[in-house]
Amino acid sequence: MRSAVETRPDVREEQREKQDILPPYSVVLHNDDHNDMVYVVQCLMKTVPGIGAARATRIMFEAHNKGKAVVTTCPLELAELYRDRLEGFGLTATIERA
Fold first, then answer.
1. Which tens digit of pLDDT belongs to each residue from 11-70?
2. Is residue 90 within 8 Å of 35, Cβ to Cβ?
3. Contacts of 41 (CB under 8 A, 6+ apart)
4. Which of 36, 48, 82, 89 could form a disulfide with 43 if both were Cys (CB 3.0 to 4.6 A apart)?
């Protein structure tokens, strides 16, 4: 006789499988001495959907004070797109495996 309670697959195992298929990458913004802070915030908001003024300002200040800051973490293809957009605005950005 079957149990009335069905077992769910391990959620952590599903997350690990997804990460194996689409491993996460971080888009990293680097500090520079030639872009205005307000301009950097505007570029971040235009580049990554869902980044508002407050979050963009925190990212900008972290990059300014610490030399670099993680903008977002996502699959590689999106990370490449966001990096390219930031570089298109004249900012310095790289991609790192998260």
1. 677 666 666 778 999 999 999 999 999 999 999 999 999 999 999 999 999 999 999 999
2. yes
3. 53, 56, 57, 60
4. 89
> What is the predicted pLDDT for the residue at 8?
62
For the record, the structure tokens of 11 come out as 């959620």
Burial class (CB in 10 A: 0-12, 13-18, 19+), 56: buried
Which pLDDT tens digit goes with each residue over 72-90? 999 999 999 999 999 999 9
Q: What is the pLDDT of residue 7?
A: 58
Contact between residue 58 and residue 47 where contact means Cβ atoms under 8 Å apart = no
What CATH fold (topology level) applies to the domain 22-97? Ribosomal Protein L30; Chain: A, (3.30.1390)
- The 3-state DSSP class for residue 26 equals strand
Rounded CA separation 33/22 (Å): 34
